[in-house]
Specification:
12 helices; mainly alpha
Length: about 300
């Protein structure tokens, strides 16, 4: 049977759609974080510890240690028990000072962020090892005041306080956290706004907070490939610059944004990563030989 040449198929023009690459495939902590990276982060901790009595350095030290805990809460921080006790004492002393400032109405405009950051970091670093009560009912009232005040400003601050409150007060009843639960739609709107305007730093903070605060609605948080490119560039640039504090932050952000779910446990914040299909195993069979005919 003859076939009209117009009906013949040119296989060179056939296009096969490749499966879409899932976002989380951009990051695999087991693959992308090397042992040398960990050693360099540990060295950065040691350098910051030397000047731990300087408040800005203490804040940086707490952030670095907290990020390392977030990356792998079960990994040993390679710090002696004595040094950890000193760091804990310094952090709790600073928290007390911030409380006093608040009671004396000397709480500076940006001090709320220091309070939330220090308290949250201390909780994440030491988890269930803290020897004294870290936060009190009075602190909860402070957090509520700060939360409602931040809502009148940048929404990024609103989510920052909400996330800190959930970490610091996990025992609070749902009714007491209602002021957080009511904000999802507005949070998504603001997150989308940051994304549209390519304000990726603000976007990442908000998206991670949304994923933690509303785990059952994580699929509704907007994201695109440009975010993953931004995060990958931040991570690689920090590594290239030997900026290990920035590197730990970039890894933490990438890990949390890649996660399927973020959960607060006795060990700190833990992530559940999506299942990534494993490559086919075994030897690929040889293709059968084909005869070559004339051109």
């Amino acid at each position: 049977m003859s076939v009209d040449i117009k009906e013949r198929i040119d296989i060179r023009k056939l296009v096969v759609d490749a499966p879409e690459k899932p976002p989380y495939a951009y990051f695999d902590p087991e693959r992308d974080i090397t042992e040398n990276d960990w050693q360099q982060m540990h060295a950065a901790v040691t350098n910051l510890y030397i000047d731990r009595f300087d408040y800005p350095n203490l804040l940086r030290l707490s952030q670095l240690l907290a990020n390392m805990r977030k990356i792998n809460p079960k990994r040993d921080l390679s710090i002696t028990e004595k040094y950890l006790e000193e760091i804990e004492e310094n952090l709790t002393t600073e928290l007390t000072e911030l409380r006093v400032q608040h009671m004396q109405e000397k709480f500076a405009k940006d001090n709320w962020r220091d309070f939330a950051q220090l308290a949250r970091n201390t909780k994440l670093i030491f988890a269930d090892k803290i020897k004294q009560e870290l936060v009190t009912d009075d602190d909860w009232e402070i957090m509520e005041d700060l939360f409602h005040g931040s809502k009148r400003g940048q929404y990024r601050d609103y989510l920052y306080i909400a996330m800190a409150a959930k970490i610091l007060f996990p025992e609070k009843r749902a009714s007491e956290m209602a002021f957080i639960d009511e904000g999802f739609e507005e949070a998504v709107k603001e997150t989308q706004n940051y994304l549209d305007n390519r304000a990726y730093l603000d976007y990442v903070d908000c998206a991670i907070a949304c994923k933690f605060l509303w785990p059952d609605k994580a699929d509704e948080i907007p994201i695109n490939d440009k975010v993953w490119v931004y995060l990958r560039n931040e991570l690689e640039q920090a590594r290239s610059d030997r900026n290990w504090e920035g590197f730990a932050g970039a890894v933490s952000n990438t890990l949390f944004l890649s996660a399927k779910r973020i959960t607060l446990t006795d060990q700190g914040l833990e992530v559940e990563m999506p299942q990534i299909p494993t490559p086919l195993e075994g030897k690929i069979p040889d293709l059968p030989r084909t005869k070559k005919y004339g051109r």
